[in-house]
Fold these 2 entries.
Entry 1:
Amino acid sequence: MSIKIAGTGSYIPERVLTNADLEKMVDTNNEWIVTRTGISERHIAAENEVTSDMAAAACRKALEAAGVDASEVGAVIVATCTPDYTFPSTAANVHRKLQMSKAFCFDLSAACCGFLSALETGTSLMVANKKYRYVLVVGAEKLSTIVNWEDRSTCVLFGDGAGAILLENVDDGSDSGLIASDMNTDGNWSDILKLPGGGSVNPASHETVDAKLHAIHMQGQETFKLAVNAMVSACRKVEADAGITISEDIKVVVPHQANIRIIQAVAKRLGITEDQVICNINRYGNTSAASVAIGFDEAVRTGKLQRGDLALLASFGSGLVWGAQLVRY
Ligand code: COA
């Protein structure tokens, strides 16, 4: 059985929010943001543009790239921490917007590690059941709706966007798609990065709104330190399991885009060159579950990743959830 990446797509909303714009909103400056994070601008979805619109746009492009009709898709998994609603799922809204027929659709919650988690889940679904010939794996976020725009320590970091991969079961014995992975969780770190309000712990109330509990709360330095170690160890585990040498065999590494300094520290410890790393954080900021999917699509569309090449995906995020995946395009 072989599951190939039949097509990729991404969608970035039109409106750009620059560091200069943020200087007018909070006590910050372009130099601090660029040197501490690597971000120059991020894109913000229009008010009437919701997560499923961006997810559907990315899916449309992935389907077009593969020449596959939406009616042929067997399942859609949308990784997101900014769903359209708590229920119905964002994936069900994608189903409606793409006028799908038979697709089994659900959302997946693993914050910034959502896309890797969805790729793991989507591939496993296809391995378990041949009726899923085509599966769309999506990361989509409208993080601008959960950012506290008065908190300079977080509001400069995040942006909106979506990315998608269409998986196809080609069943020809070829060595393609997801080849090896190392996915992990440590719930003991669940307090360092969270959205405290709106769930069963702090149901929405006037008080939760006044206390800004419906926005991202983050301990930045702790997250930073854990992120580097976690991504490097997952990449090394995949390297050993797959019997490859990252610095020699991998065409591109697509890391989660949270901070340029995290990306550089990971690259240094993996012994890879700048050319091997997909980095777009300067333009998009951190788009959580969408970031690796967007980076992967860019690698394909810019020709950095060609058919047959190996890519290494790496991510970490709230949970703590982290992982690495070896994929052949
Ligand atoms: N503009 C200007 N100054 C800012 C600022 C901003 N936007 N945000 C914070 N500061 C200030 C702080 O108040 C602090 O000032 P002080 O020394 O007077 O107290 C100073 O800058 C240093 O803050 P610190 O938090 O130590 O900065 P940092 O170098 O750790 O960078 C992050 C902060 C958030 C950029 C960094 O910790 C980070 O990227 N962490 C990982 C976050 C992450 O990956 N999140 C997503 C996970 S999926």
Entry 2:
Amino acid sequence: MAFELVALPYAHDALAPHMGVQTLELHHGKHHNTYVTTLNTLIAGTPFETMTLEQIVKESYGKPETQGIFNNAGQNWNHNLFWPSMKPGGGGAIPSELENRLISDFGSVEQFKQMFIDAGKTQFGSGWAWLVVDQGKLAVTKTPNGETPLVHGKHVLLGCDVWEHAYYLDYQNRRPDYLKAFLDNLVNWEFVAERLRQTD
Ligand code: MN3
């Protein structure tokens, strides 16, 4: 079964000015689409062809001979999570059950946001900043390139793409400004809260 590019859950202009039309058209329509087509090409005729995306990510991780498959499978998984984690008019009130967990595990929502921004800012080169559930506790982490916390046994609640293709047209070199706008104006906190419920 060949994988298909997931549809964006909003229009290309719906996240402006925080994430512009051109960024979404290129990022979803070109970058993500290339991960889909490349993955399909790489797994054709291999045992990976019959696996789910999550299985491919886990099975291809950490093996030099399947590094290419992992890169593209990981990036598909990451982007499939990234698009619905944002919404027009996002970043508002956080559902109370999630807010309470952020406060109990990080001290405050502001403390969590600062840690998340720092993780994204200090990811040298391309990668992702994450909010995960790690052994029952919320934690912030970061990964390089297409790597995902899934392969480290963590349940992902939220991820922010800090590859330059995600923000350069809108923010140029100001990655921290992009991370702040992501948290304050783009995140669909109901989506994050729903993923938290899936761990209970
Ligand atoms: Mn990307």
